[in-house]
Amino acid sequence: MHRMSIIARLLTYSLLMLCGWSDSLTYAKQVAIALSSQAVTPGATLTLSGTGFGSFQSTQFNRVTVNGVPALVQRWESEAIEIKVPFKATSGLVEVLIGKKKLLAGHVAIVAPYIETISPAEAERGTTVQIAGRHFGLSAGARDPNTMFGVNDVMVGGVKVRPRRWKDDKIELVIPPNATSGEVVVRLASSDPLPNGSCCSPVEYLVSNPVPLKLIPSVRVDPLSGPVGTKVVLFGQGFGPVKESVDDAVLIGGRPTTIAQWKDDVIVVHVPLDAESGPVVLRYKGRERVVGEFAVHMPRAVSLSPASAPIGTLLRINGEHFGFYSESGSTPFNFTDFNTGENRVEIGGVPAVVYRWNDDRIDVWVPFSAKSGKVVIYRSANRPNVAGLCCAEQGTVAVEAGNFTVVKPVIDSYEPKSAGLDATVTIKGNGFGTFLKTAEHADLALNQKAYKRRTDLEINDPDVNDTVVSNVSRTEVLFNGSAALVQSWTDHEIVVKVPHRNLYGIGKKGDFFDDLATGPLIVRRGSWDLLPDGTCCSAKKWLTLEAGQFTIEAKGLPDDGYWTNNRPDANTNQ
After folding, report:
1. Is-cis flag, bond preceding 390, omega within 30?
2. Per residue in 375-392, pLDDT tens?
3. How far is residue 175's CA from residue 448's CA, in Å, rounded to a whole number?
4. How far apart are CA 360 and CA 371, in angstroms?
5. Nearest CA to 399 among 341, 339, 319?
6. pLDDT for position 470
7. Handedness of CA 170, 175, 176, 182 (dihedral sign)
């Protein structure tokens, strides 16, 4: 302890000699002053704690210097003084000047910001970058109450960025859209007082060492989840006009995908048969870049409704991860080429007619040739060859949705056997299914032809292909060939009104039939089959049931007098 005391006295003596003997007498009498930090950057706030500072009188009377350079006084109280470290200051002594009185506050080291690393060294605009280093100081950014003295910031390629997190050894920022590749520097803002001690000289910045940062075009991956066969599109820039090398590829979970299209701003791939969840990696010109994370899902059926019904029924399959119907093409958008690949639903081994295919729901029409059996959803996919092109293998993933029974309608009875116009007729039986309110006026591909001008549409002309014909519904009751108005339709009972046309006459080009009062009463359901190449569809086919003969009686006809005197108001002498 005695030895340490001697060393402390020698250090104090040396300090007094350096500062001058006359000043040392003043320092020796003062109360100790503590500095909030022993190492600071220009522009940082430094607090001096002690006693006897008195009250502030003027910028000339109350001053603080850092190694002889005047500092801007922000707060002066009897026991605390707060200053901004001047921009021109160097390491040295901090002194408090009160009139002619001089107080020594201690020694402070002036340090400069230094960047050690930037992570990552290559980044997309909009991503977060971390700058690690030392002596960045502390900053509250734009919320700093001292923003009038300038705000600490970071320059990225000449663009000013205000970070979202700032610590003395780490800065975190988001690269703005207008930033460019270039040097990254940390700038610490500072301002010195004017010669009279008041505020302020123009803001100046202490700049750190520059570190390069390369900004690469962002890549948007859509979607980021789906079953095998899903079309995944990479939107970006700089991919190159074509796939130049065999090694150029897009990997999902470490497995190569089938590349359907490669252009400078878009790449279209399909999730392969053996895909696994994992990162989406773009391999181009020998470099690999992770552009997303893809989750491979397995399709799953939850429910099937109804479980039994006649042909022409709309069968609903609910579940998840079915993907989308027409995503086997090479364009970025499914509706552009409408390529369904091998995506399909089979009922008892017979392909059904797809009406709606969403990721969580599939609706299909039970085809005319449907058979009872399992309902299976087939999801098409493939494996790429060595170059990433199609295809080393093509296949499907099959998902069972349940069992379906095809019901054949049966008529038990109908009453009455004859009736007048607008009378109701009740047909009883079972397996009639549900009444279909939709009518396909041309074919199931109508939605794909909606914007194409067609001049060949003509009512009641079945001899011309692709025209609207008289039979536009798929659940109907016919009185001697003429459709009746359906009042109600359940699986066990159908109620219809006797139509008018049979007594008035029915005609078309070149023909007219004036007596159709007696004829067969028919119930029928219509549906289609897919064509042999898997496209839609064959001509409508009918399942026809004859209940028996029915006679439409001449009852309920309009009063004949209406035709001879249809203007009662004309019979007047007024």
Report:
1. no
2. 999 999 999 998 888 888
3. 44
4. 25
5. 319
6. 47
7. positive
- Are the CB atoms for 85 and 43 separated by under 8 Å? yes
Q: Which region among 257-271, 285-299, 310-324, 455-469 has the lowest average model confidence (pLDDT)?
A: 455-469
CA 526 centroid distance within chain: 40
Measured between alpha carbons, how far is 477 from 363 in angstroms, rounded to an integer? 25
Confidence bin at 138 (pLDDT 50/70/90): confident
CA distance 227 to 295: 8
Task: Please report the DSSP string for 405-443 in residue order.
Answer: EEPPPEEEEEE-SEE-TT-EEEEEEE----------SS-
Q: Which amino acid does the sequence have at 539?
A: A
Alpha-carbon gap, residue 452 to 51, rounded angstroms: 91
E strand or H helix at 501: helix 501-504
Please state whether the peptide bond connecting residue 120 to the residue before it is cis, i.e. omega within 30 degrees of 0.
yes
pTM surpassing 0.70? no
Please give the Cα distance from 40 to 136 (Å, whole number). Answer: 10
pLDDT of residue 471: 55
Using alpha carbons, list the distances in angstroms from residue 96 to 36, 55, 204, 444.
Answer: 15, 13, 24, 91
Q: Write the DSSP string, 283-351.
A: EETTEEEEEEEEEE---EEEEEE-SEE-TT-EEEEEEE----TTB-SSSSSHHHH-B-TT-EEEETTEE
* Integer Cα distance of 558 and 561 in angstroms: 8
- Work out the pLDDT band at 162, boundaries 50, 70, 90: confident
Edge-to-edge, what's the strand order for the sheet holding 350-351? Answer: 308-309, 393-406, 373-383, 344-347, 350-351
Positive or negative torsion for Cα 464, 467, 470, 472: positive
Residue with more model confidence, 472 or 123: 123
Q: What angle do CA 275, 276, 280 make, to 5 degrees?
A: 90
Mean pLDDT of 175-200: 87
pLDDT digits (tens, 9 = 90+) for 360-370: 999 999 999 99
Which pLDDT band holds residue 460 (cuts at 50, 70, 90)?
Answer: very low
Give the pairing of strands 485-489 and 493-497: antiparallel
Query: 2-19 vs 21-29: helix axis angle to the nearest 10?
Result: 130
Phi, psi of 111 (to 5 degrees): -115, 160
H/E element, 25:
helix 21-29
Whether 104 shows a pLDDT value over 90: the answer reads yes
CA distance 206 to 222: 44
- In the numeric block, the tokens 């008035």 are attached to 504
